[in-house]
Amino acid sequence: MRKADIANEIFEKVGVSKKEAADIVELILNLLKSVLQKGESVKIAGFGNFMVRSKGARKGRNPRTGQEIGITPRRVVTFRPSQVFKKYVNQ
Question: In angstroms, how far is CA 89 from the centroid of its own chain?
Answer without folding.
Answer: 17
